[in-house]
Design a protein that fits this description.
alpha/beta, nine-stranded parallel sheet, about 325 residues
């Protein structure tokens, strides 16, 4: 019986290709890839030798960094060593909120002794408005200054009612400019140590723009401020003061218009205005019982966190 041909047995040519030629081609490919890589990738420059250390010097660089120096080119070592952590900056301080401020003016000093002297014992900032030409005007001004209080001139201005007497030194709307200047200068000189002026009465005078312009021009020259007592809502005094660059402010609350017994309620209103607007000005007078009522009201200011100041701190 004739043996069958074995079709799966490789021919000699195939055996040569499988055992010799394929490994040769694979080796040739590896050599080609190596040569291509060596041409495209430049050789690393030699790393600088670390300085030799003597027996008396100790390297402070970490051992790991020294070993990497031998492997990386110069200038690349710092990429491997993380920078020291930054010290966190302290958070910014929160701004301290300003306390609401209140100034209290005491009007009509100079003519009444006992009711005025009752205020000397109050250890709070007060601004005393002194009328000119009173029997005690100069003495009251000096006493207030000695007690570190503020003194301003309580300037008499013409009222609407011609039957009402504002007292000596009044400035009237029918005065000539020269008469107004002379009377004003005399009034300013009559009260020592003044830093400003507020009006006594003046519901007619503070509406007269010509009178107010002359007044503010003179106060500007003298370096004085002006507080409008606001005896009438249509006053132009503060508007004209700003026009002439005179620091000014406007009264917010009359504290004793309803008598000393009404002062606690009026103080409450004054505090409300100060908290709403940041500041407020109250005016009281040298009447019996007013100083005691103010003394009793001090806890109201403290409970509301109100800072009491002289009125010069509130003019703008």
């Amino acid at each position: 019986m004739r043996p069958q041909p074995q079709t799966n047995f490789p021919s000699p040519r195939r055996r040569f290709f499988r055992h010799c030629l394929l490994p040769l081609l694979f080796l040739t490919s590896l050599v080609g890839q190596y040569l291509l890589w060596s041409v495209v990738t430049p050789p690393l420059p030699a790393a600088p030798r670390p300085p030799r250390t003597t027996s008396t010097s100790i390297s402070t660089r970490p051992a790991l960094a020294t070993s990497f120096e031998r492997l990386l080119p110069a200038g690349h070592l710092e990429l491997l060593i993380p920078p020291p952590p930054k010290t966190p900056e302290p958070p910014p301080e929160a701004p301290v909120p300003h306390r609401a401020r209140v100034a209290i003016i005491i009007d009509d000093l100079g003519f009444v002794r006992e009711a005025t002297e009752a205020f000397w014992e109050l250890e709070i900032p007060l601004t005393f408005a002194v009328l000119p030409w009173g029997r005690y005007s100069a003495a009251h001004a000096r006493e207030a200054l000695a007690r570190k209080q503020e003194v301003i001139l309580h300037l008499p201005l013409e009222p609407l009612d011609p039957q009402t007497d504002p007292g000596p030194g009044v400035l009237r709307t029918d005065f000539s400019p020269e008469e107004l200047r002379q009377q004003l200068q005399a009034n300013l000189a009559a009260v020592p140590g003044i830093t400003g002026v507020n009006n006594h009465m003046g519901s007619k005078g503070t509406q007269d723009r010509a009178l107010m312009e002359l007044l503010m021009a003179e106060l500007k020259k003298a370096g004085l401020f002006f507080v409008d007592s606001l005896t009438i809502p249509t006053s132009v005094a503060a508007t004209v003061a700003r026009k002439y660059g005179v620091p000014t402010a406007v009264r917010d609350v009359f504290l004793d218009g309803g008598g000393a017994e009404a002062i606690p309620a009026q103080i409450g209103l004054l505090i409300e205005k100060a908290l709403a607007h940041g500041s407020a000005i109250g005016i009281a007078h040298t009447r019996p019982g007013v100083a005691a009522a103010l003394r009793d009201a001090i806890p109201q200011f403290e409970a509301a966190g109100i800072e009491l100041v002289h009125v010069s701190a509130l003019v703008k």
